[in-house]
């Protein structure tokens, strides 16, 4: 089962109550939904996801809650939240809305190129919305275009060199596998290490990063239009929140976190609850390595 990141903090801030309505705008494997129902089994949750695998998984896993009309699962983009709620005859969300902008375990294990050792290079969250794949980009975009994608969406400092090596590589062989891309980048950049200091117990945790992490991130963000979607999604969510309802957003890199932080500050109709982002403690990171970069921000509708 997928372990939701910062789940205890999410539930603490959300403070789920019976007869309230909640939205999990990035449903995934339903980890947050599961925890909300533990606190209030008779509340109502709308779960939204673009990924068909996530929809199918949750339809089976939460069958009883769906049958009791406590959970409604919608396959759609969270940027359409207002339209989704209108179709459900729901005007306002009086509980709260959760966004987790990370990949779900289903996506990582899907074989679609999200994992470094996959046999394919797709990276589309919903293949029905775009024909553009990572394989097409890597084999057809110019060196300059590739460099711009890696720098703009991955903040990769070696973007130009990586783009150059990709263009050289594809002259002899088409790039069709995620593990091929990982090897190309790994031949340029050595394995990265990041030290995280935890003031509470004065412990330092050293984590190894695959050199291709930022390149994979950049391609995924570009293909799925993720940054623009986050901007639109946060605005839509705040618009539909009732007074005192919470919005919780969990990001995994600075580009996402910056958008969330700025949106929360810009909106005059919400109050920032977390002055600084909440991050996982050392125990959570050791238990769930995917939590290592997570940053959670919370705001309240006023």
3D structure, described in words:
It contains 14 helices and nine strands. The two termini are 36 Å apart. The mean pLDDT is 93. It has two domains: 7-107 and 224-301, Rossmann fold, CATH 3.40.50.150; 111-223, Putative methyltransferase TM0872, insert domain (DNA polymerase, domain 1, Orthogonal Bundle), CATH 1.10.150.170. Helices cover 43% and strands 17% of the residues. The protein has 302 residues and is of the alpha/beta class.
Q: What topology emerges from the helices and strands here?
A:
Blueprint: H1 7-14, E1 21-24, H2 31-39, E2 44-49, H3 52-61, H4 63-67, E3 71-75, H5 81-87, E4 96-100, H6 105-108, H7 134-140, H8 143-154, H9 159-170, H10 178-186, E5 192-198, E6 203-209, H11 213-224, H12 226-240, E7 246-251, H13 254-266, E8 270-272, H14 282-287, E9 295-301
Parallel strand pairs: 1-2, 1-4, 2-3, 4-7
Antiparallel strand pairs: 5-6, 7-9, 8-9
Helix pairs in contact: 8-9, 8-11, 12-13
Task: Based on Cα principal axes, name the global outline.
Answer: globular
The strand order across the widest sheet is: 3-2-1-4-7-9-8
What is the domain total for the residues? 2
Structural class of the helix and strand makeup?
A: alpha/beta
What is the strand tally? 9
Q: Strand-residue fraction? A: 15-25%
Weakly predicted, low-confidence segments: none
The CATH topology assignment of the largest domain is Rossmann fold
What does the radius of gyration come to? 20 Å
Quaternary assembly? single chain
Order of helices and strands: HEHEHHEHEHHHHHEEHHEHEHE
Helix % is 40-55%
Which architecture name of the largest domain does CATH use?
Answer: 3-Layer(aba) Sandwich
The main β sheet shows up as: 7 strands, mixed
> For the record, what CATH class of the largest domain applies?
Alpha Beta
CATH superfamily of the largest domain: Vaccinia Virus protein VP39
Distance between the termini: 36 Å
Mean pLDDT across residues:
93
